[in-house]
Amino acid sequence: MKKIKFAFIVGVLCILGVYLAGMGLEKRLYNHLLPPSANTITYFCHEGIIKATYMAQKVRLVLPDGRKFDLPQVTAASGIRYSNGTIEFWSKGANAFVTANSKIIYSDGIAGTVRFLNRNTAVFIDSGKTFSFHYPRGFGLSGKGIGFTTDWRAGATESGMVLALVTIPKSHLPQTNFNGAEFIVGQSSDPRAIQHCFEKLEGYGARMEQVKIKGVFFIKFTFSDAGAGNLYETVSYRTKRGDACYVVEYTIHSSNIGMYSPDQGIQEFNKAVIENLLEKMVGSFRFLR
Question: Which of 104, 133, 198, 209 has the highest count of CB atoms within 10 angstroms of its CB?
């Protein structure tokens, strides 16, 4: 009888151990994608930084202007939604946005952490602690949309995720034909995206070469697109890691200098300055695991 009881207890402990181990594995795999209970997440939006503390069935939201809201969880078609009827907060994976009276007031939020190396340089680390990169402190950090999108890389037809976006505004080079630039880190696990990760883009006259960034090989694509007096020049670095295609790329947007009359005083922008800045950001990119 004692042997039977002992065997029963051992069996229960084994089952419990497997269950707890499974929970631990699940937490390691998915905890960075789902808001942990009573945990504060920082989201970087175009309009500022918001903090969300997730608790059981509610979230405490702190906006950049100091306002705080405790919002109950409500039904959502996709992601997780909290609302008091006026202020609404949506999050999905690492993305989030906030609305007031159905109007978006904080858009394209991306979860992660930022630390400052010095007065000019910041370091972004994504919420899953998968990668990091350096960027100038004065530029905007955000995501791009919420959930899956084809904007994860230039010219993509497959869905993926924008993991981080840094925006260089037109005002960075005033009185020039510079119209802004975007630096994107994107990723897709779509089998088609993985298959086409290193394929040359047709119709763009893309140039290809192999480069190494922080010990990891990437295929570098350089191509451009033009229309209606606008030029979009893209440099895209791609690599396969795990079961995904990753891209680190930037696009520089400028307009035809001939579109401006002499009395406007618009000068040709120094493209080398912007390229050097963006290449430094690319060169700082590092996989953390």
Answer: 133
| Residue in the structure block whose two tokens are 């883009």 | 201
User: What is the token pair recorded at 285?
Assistant: 């990119």
User: Residues 126, 99: contact at Cβ < 8 Å?
Assistant: no
Q: Using the 3D structure, point to which of 61, 77, 111 is the last residue of a domain.
A: 111
For tokens 């990760």, the residue is: 197
| H helices present in the chain, as ranges | 2-30, 191-195, 271-284
90 found inside a domain: yes
Question: Is 26 part of a structural domain of the chain?
Answer: no
Q: CA triplet 244, 247, 253: central angle to 5 degrees? A: 150
pLDDT in tens, 124-178: 999 999 999 999 998 999 999 888 999 999 989 999 999 999 999 999 999 999 9
The reported pTM is 0.84
Q: How far apart are CA 98 and CA 105, in angstroms?
A: 6
Please give the order of strands across the beta sheet that includes 140-142: 140-142, 161-168, 178-188, 244-255, 230-241, 216-227, 207-213
Q: Containing domain of residue 179, as a range?
A: 117-287
